[in-house]
Amino acid sequence: MIGIFDSGVGGMTVAHAVEQFCPGRALIYFGDLARTPYGSKSPAVIRRYARQNIDFLLAHGARMIIIACNSAASVAAEDMRREFSLPIFDVIGPTVRRAVEISSAVSGRIGVIGTRATINSAVYPRKIGQINQELRVYGNECPLLVPLVEEGWLNRRETRMILRYYLRPLKMRQVDTLVLGCTHYPLLRDLIQPRIGKRVRIVDSSIEVARELRQYLNDHPECDTTTGGSKFYVSDMTPAAAATARRIFGRPIELQVQQAGG
Amino acid sequence: MIGIFDSGVGGMTVAHAVEQFCPGRALIYFGDLARTPYGSKSPAVIRRYARQNIDFLLAHGARMIIIACNSAASVAAEDMRREFSLPIFDVIGPTVRRAVEISSAVSGRIGVIGTRATINSAVYPRKIGQINQELRVYGNECPLLVPLVEEGWLNRRETRMILRYYLRPLKMRQVDTLVLGCTHYPLLRDLIQPRIGKRVRIVDSSIEVARELRQYLNDHPECDTTTGGSKFYVSDMTPAAAATARRIFGRPIELQVQQAGG
């Protein structure tokens, strides 16, 4: 089974994209709602949670892992690959490759928005620089976007104002490509596009990791990823989370409560 | 020692008030930054965290406890008093008594703002009704205020708009008294007063619990609350938390990182 974890329900945008790109594959999802959000916490704490979440997914039959949380991928993916011997995908690698491909053909100016943990880790500029040192990368942390999305404030005036505030420095830098470096942000895409500029290409990390996973599964037919029903676990259950899950999938999602770690 | 816990650093408004009202008493503070915020989590999860936090404070020498988090007080205070045999104060009781005293002398219409957990628990209307059934209580959940305060957005236009949106239903009800049912909200008091109306009396739960503690200590001179230096523990350390702590106390606060529970 394909294990996916996130700090909450935002990573369900990844699970939804995997359903679209790899139809029929069985997923097991874990959303750490009891400790959400990760993006304002320290790297040490996020790494401990990532380790516990992977242990949980392994215990429930996962044979490959997708880290569907940019904050966790930013500070924990490399450690987790050293610690666990199974394929670990994350949202950052494929997103970086796609952004480089698009921006190299235009002006080479990439903007990245994400949580504080993701932007402070500088993982995007570092990985983009490893592929093409000519590109310029401008990041901006957007800590209020996750709470706004989780409240369902997807088209309120305050959300549009806050988005304009967060996007302004990137617009001033005339980026040609914008990375949505948090799995909550695709839900704001229709507000982001007009505010960053309609010619700016938006790269959605949820879609990129699903595309890469499809390629991997095609290249590795020996992978015994069971087909069948998907399962969704959360470490806490709240009505707001159930509503966000329904909004992402466009259908009700049955969430089961279980703990990972303490 | 007087043990105080909160989901993060918001409860330091209580610690600061206790310093003012009970000068020289030694405090031990625990802020659960690794799992913050509590206000959007379920009662079951909040109770588990409250239990672990009290165990932590006991192990560090606390002989009485203040639950400085309205969300935890709302859903866990009564269980904790059954489970632990030491004095447990919380922000809600004294705040309720003060609001009833003020409002009974005016029109008897009390507004309460708080997190989702606090408002959904209906603890304020229930406790106010136990004292005076004639009073009317109107609550409104304000889930975005904690992230706004933690970002330090204390005088931005977006914050003022969001406050106006949250306060409007209470203003329409013509409340004469407004309870700040979350320890983060005192930091927004100067924005709240003009938006709810300058004649509305604001009750700050941080101050009320400190006042009640002073009374208790005067009435119980046998209480061996050590005098001396206070200690501040957090389960995670972030620059934003350190900045909020400094803003609350008006001086730098030394935070030590330790875990409570898993």
Account of the 3D structure:
The structure is a homodimer of 262-residue chains. Chain A has helices at 12-21, 43-59, 70-83, 92-104, 116-121, 123-131, 145-150, 157-172, 189-196, 205-219, 239-249, and strands spanning 2-6, 27-31, 64-67, 88-90, 109-114, 136-141, 177-180, 201-204, 231-234, 255-257. The first copy, chain A, has 262 residues and is α/β, with parallel strands linked by helices. In chain A, strand 1, helix 1 and strand 2 (27-31) form a beta-alpha-beta unit. Chain A contains eleven helices and ten strands. The first copy, chain A, folds into two domains: 2-90 and 207-257, Rossmann fold; 92-205, Rossmann fold. In chain A, strands 4-3-1-2-9-10 form a six-stranded parallel β-sheet, sandwiched between helices. In chain A, strands 6-5-7-8 form a four-stranded parallel β-sheet, with helices on both faces. Chains A and B meet through helix 7 and helix 8 of A and helix 7 and helix 8 of B.
